# Entry
Amino acid sequence: MFNRIASKMNMRTAFYVLSAIILSCFISNQTLSQEPPCKGIATSKGLVNGVYLKESNICAFLGIPYAAPPLGELRFALPTEHEPWNAPLETVKIASQCPQTPSPMTDTSIPMNEDCLYLNIWAPVSIGSEKKPVMVFIHGGGFIVGSGGNSSYNGTNLSSMGDVIVVTVNYRLGVLGFLAHPAFADATGRTGNWGLYDQLAALRWVNQNIPNFGGDPGNVTLFGQSAGGMSVGLHLASPLSAGLFSKVAIHSGPPILLNISLEKGVATALDIASKLGCSETSSAASCLRSASIENILAKIPLGIFVMDTLEAQNKSFVVPVVDGAFIPEAPYSIFKNGRFNKDVIVMLGTTKDEASYFTMKKTLKTEKDFNDNLKMDIDNVAEALGVRLSGKPGDLEALFSVANYPTVEKAYQDFICDAGFTCPTELLAEMILAHQPEVYRFYHTKDPVKMLNLGAFHGSELPYVFGNFGFMGQQFRSKDNLKLAKTAISLWSSFARTGAPSADSVPNWAKYDLTDRSYMILGDKIEIGAGLKKEKCEPLSGFFKANME
# Structure
């Protein structure tokens, strides 16, 4: 009798087990047949449909509007909220980039339109309710070129390998982004910085909407390179951006080099308005708002901070100004006096050969070439950014003596690299450390595409951080580059996740301090260095302080 009961129980157990297996397979098949959750994502203005990238298990949402198109009366105005939409918005391709004069940094595959205030999101498909860290990237380009939709900044690899949500942003550029004309001033006299306010609107959009994409609005890392790095530093300094991010990474863009007063910005704007035929005070606003993009780009072909040739000087620089609101005072003073957002963890870094493609069109054969270019570029930087390297006559020439370099060009590249990037970044790190200890420094030394003979050029760390290998028409995906990309993505994503960058088989990346001045070297060998360019940075810091304090 006991055997019969046991037999019935075994049969019953077997039935339940079999039923559970069948049900499990049914549920599994249903799950596999369903499309991943890339559609019908709610935003504050309506639903969006993204695209599923199966190979990476990523949802990509490309071309989400974060503000109203800056057209008509909204040109040269603060960004405003976008109108709601009824049907789900198909966000499956990169939207237009902001108007610009094409350069090697311009992705010509992307259409150009003044309706350009869009962002892109790459989000891992995952099970569970835990929110992902968010990494918001601001592109560089001297505040005059570039796009968050540039293929170099595609967030698929960083999002997938780093298990983070990646956001890239467009913002208004050049005249449209930074013209500080008094005709557009508010009651307090504030004008200009439209591109910075675009970035701020995008950050606020992320804060409000990113939870619906699986992101944690309390764990946002803001990072950017060149003008994007400078923008990140300005957000770190701005009271208007407080609370919108917990970590920043400033790549080759020390914001303390910016020192353009509102008055100087206004004077530049009046000159530009005159060139566009809009000098009449009573009609300046309507004239500037109705000027065609083609006319603006044709008559104001803005150059970057370091001009290519002695003949190419152009004084129509438009950059962020100290407007008393977004930038309350000179960034140098903000950081020196600890009036920045001190609750933010900071990563800063530069590359070994920052200036290699800035000097490609310069004539640098003789010591006279060196001295002529030195004077011109110091004047241009003073005009563009409001900062002059002041020292006794001959000091800079002695510091970068041509006799100590294999070529005149290499001596001049070192001057641009150290005076424009390495040493101001060192000075910024010192200023931040005086008020909070959460600082990390990196130095990128690897040449990603040797055939171009540019070394570790300005921005050469970004292919590794994003895992995308294309630059100036060259594709340089290789086993060696992919290995460093895996490490860089681990370092940057762990920084975003925890505030402490780490990766397998990498030395401990300690916080920066003024005793060891240690930093992470990202090159053919990953190792710890100390006292980067001390022999150059100590006197250069003195020159900056003499001009700015």
About this structure: The mean pLDDT is 90. The longest strand covers residues 215-225.
